[in-house]
TrEMBL record:
The keyword Transcription applies. InterPro entries: RNA_pol_sigma-70-like (IPR039425), RNA_pol_sigma-70_dom (IPR014284), RNA_pol_sigma70_r2 (IPR007627), RNA_pol_sigma70_r4_t2 (IPR013249), RNA_pol_sigma_r2 (IPR013325), RNA_pol_sigma_r3/r4-like (IPR013324), WH-like_DNA-bd_sf (IPR036388). Residues 133-184 form the RNA polymerase sigma factor 70 region 4 type domain. It comes from the Bacteria. This is RNA polymerase, sigma-24 subunit, ECF subfamily. Signal peptide: none annotated. It comes from Lysobacter dokdonensis DS-58. Keywords: Sigma factor, Transcription, Transcription regulation.
Amino acid sequence: MTQADPTTPRSSFAIDVPDALLARARAGDRAAFEQLYRWFERPVFTLALRIGGDREEARDVLQDTMLKVLGRIGEFRGGGSPFWGWLRQIAVNEALMRLRRDKRLANEIGVDDTGVFAEDDAPLPPAAADAALVQRALAGLPASTRSVLWLYHAEGYTHDEIAAAMQRTASFSKSQLARGTRKLRAALASTEDVHA
């Protein structure tokens, strides 16, 4: 995969998996697969949460992804690409598939596609409070816009790769990124005005 920008942070999925561990997992070694699960649980869950905006959905995506990896691990041949990239693509596909399905269901029953994160009444430390503000601002974006922002900025996907994953065009990805960035800035600016 080509990085969107050389300054893009390394993906949380970028975990070097030893060949011996992969060989054991392919051979059906349960302990080896459990190790892979522990290593990739947080990155898959985080990606699914950022794309879908719902913790329960993210847990479901995590389970579906890892079951798919378990069932298809024998198909991974490497060929110059890392295991984490293969697993990440499965996670992205699962999250986007669930997002498309949920959007179809929401359209059928007339619900909008914004997510809501649970809030805690206890005051947060400053860094956590900032993260919570960003999380709430992201939750207020449409799911497709939130997905593009996350895939581009956090995972380092290019617009062409996002377009392929979302079954759209690169210009769709670019416009969602621009629109999402504007809305995110506006939402964060309005919270700063309230706290000033």
